[in-house]
Amino acid sequence: KETKKIVSACFAGIECRYDGRANRVTKIQEMIKKGEAIPVCPEQLGGLSTPRLPAQIVGGSGEDVLDGKAKVIDQAGNDVTEAFIRGAEQALQMAKLTGATEAILKERSPSCGSCVIYDGTFEGTKKAGQGVTTALLKRHGIRVKSEEEL
Ligand code: SF4
Questions:
Q1: Nearest CA to ligand 1 atom 3
Q2: How many Cβ atoms from other residues are within 10 Å of residue 49's Cβ?
Q3: Domain range for residue 27?
Q4: Ligand 1 centroid from CA 39, angstroms
Q5: Per-residue pLDDT averaged across 24-35, rounded?
Q6: Which band of pLDDT confidence, cut at 50, 70 and 90, is reported for residue 2?
Q7: Which end of the chain has the smaller Cβ count within 10 Å, N or C?
Q8: pLDDT digit string (tens) for 57-89?
Q9: 18-28 pLDDT, tens per residue?
Q10: Ligand 1: which atom is nearest the Cα of residue 87?
């Protein structure tokens, strides 16, 4: 039997992205149909609206946000760190509840990125790092990979 996975809800075709769009991935939609994957959007679970302003981690990576050493800031300069942490905690709760031991999350997102994120300058430049939800799930022993590793 396949291990249960948490997947970014935007892969399922749920229009939960900051711009109100989705990142449909057929392979992941099939996993959900078979009951192997559970779609979760940490940013919506954290209480943010859709659409919303894009946000980036400033001053570090997802693990630094969890440790209070970096913040998540939206394009207008609002501090949305609390919502991102809350969303990560809710995603973890869903993983625990469903017994998910793996996650497939959207690369480059400040919540869901696992190898690459934007660098906090809002100039389209990226850096190595992970999102806030990825960092929290990994701390709790959940294996995280991106759609690019499928
Ligand atoms: Fe997709 Fe994650 Fe962004 Fe939600 S927070 S829209 S699941 S990448």
A1: 17
A2: 11
A3: 5-149
A4: 10
A5: 97
A6: confident
A7: N
A8: 999 999 999 999 999 999 999 999 999 999 999
A9: 999 999 999 99
A10: 5
For the chain, the domain total comes to: 1
ipTM: 0.99
Residues framing ligand 1 (Cβ under 6 A): 8-10, 16-17, 41-43, 106, 109, 111-112
- Name the DSSP class of 122: S
Whether pLDDT at 1 is above 90: no
Which residue from 7, 19, 38, 43 has its CB within 8 A of the most atoms of ligand 1, so it is best to mutate?
43
- Nearest C-alpha neighbor of 44 from the set 78, 73, 18: 18
Q: Which two tokens stand for residue 115?
A: 């190898």
Q: Are 113 and 72 in contact (CB under 8 A)?
A: no
How many angstroms is it from 69 CA to the middle of ligand 1?
Answer: 22
